[in-house]
Design goal:
alpha+beta, Uridine Diphospho-n-acetylenolpyruvylglucosamine Reductase, domain 2, Uridine Diphospho-n-acetylenolpyruvylglucosamine Reductase, domain 3, Uridine Diphospho-n-acetylenolpyruvylglucosamine Reductase, domain 1, 5-stranded antiparallel β-sheet, 4-stranded mixed β-sheet, binds flavin-adenine dinucleotide
Amino acid sequence: MSLFSSLKNIRGLRLTENVPLANMTTFRIGGPCRLICEPESPEAAIELFRILPELNVPYALLGNGSNTLVSDKGFDGIVIRPVSGGAAERLFGSRIRAGAGMLVPSLACFARDQGLAGLAFAQGIPGSVGGGLTMNCGAYGANIADVCESVVCVRPGGEVHTFAGSECGFGYRESIFRHEQLYILEATFVLTEGDSSAIAEDMRTYAAKRSASQPLHMPSAGSVFKRPEGYFAGKLIEDAGLKGYRIGGAEVSEKHAGFIVNAGGATAADVIALIRHIQQTVYDRFGVWLEREVCILGDVENV
Ligand SMILES: Cc1cc2nc3c(=O)[nH]c(=O)nc-3n(C[C@H](O)[C@H](O)[C@H](O)COP(=O)(O)OP(=O)(O)OC[C@H]3O[C@@H](n4cnc5c(N)ncnc54)[C@H](O)[C@@H]3O)c2cc1C
């Protein structure tokens, strides 16, 4: 039985074969996958994960693809990602529940409209709630972990488990979700009462800072490297003379050296070669090894 036929009866599961993953990442890079599965609801995702082990096929998780570099060969298996969008729900007190597919900026806007403070920092982070929690996304001194009360996940086999925020192993761009076979279904955030117009003002300030300092008009995956202890990756790369350095279509952004942009027709191989070049050059100049933040989907050589 084909993969498609095995899954086509799951209600609320969108299936598309041979999808070019480039279209599903902000880098706009990457080959196809055999099948993309997009659960429209937690129930559809749970049913998919229940039968996943029987399919005996490799699978990978994706959110909004804003921190992911996909191999040029793509991925010979299933890519699972929640249908993008969805609504958040205000819960008792100052809490909000959101599905994994909701975009982080939409969640920040929902919180603002509810007069709830604590997510203004996230207005310009172009990820999904699932990807944001996995990466513990953050900006301007705040991280999503700071406001995460609990996360509901499903494992292969279909077991659903709720993790308290303190059980998620959150660290700097880290969580257990990066390392364990857990698909995030939804999460609850605990915020503080605030004033919508003051929150909106904070969001405008952050948006202005971003557009002044980041190459938002070009395809990228945001900061490629983690911030090394005591340094800023972008500053090290700039001081190493690498701003504007290019391999194929991949270029160190002129605007923010911590970003690699797809300046036109970049391949994953170009990006990987540029990452290696940056790591080696910065190490030779400053003795600091830059650790990659961007996730890899598919088969690429180690970086
Ligand atoms: C212009 C730009 C600006 C950015 N600015 C910031 C910033 O200020 N701060 C910051 O932290 N990041 C920033 N990023 C990076 C990125 O937006 C964040 O890391 C974001 O949280 C990634 O979310 P995503 O849904 O796109 O994840 P993806 O890239 O799709 O996936 C990232 C990881 O999460 C996993 N994952 C995704 N969904 C799920 C799920 N439902 N269950 C389990 N695992 C899942 C994937 O398997 C992968 O390992 C920026 C990126 C861009 C392009």
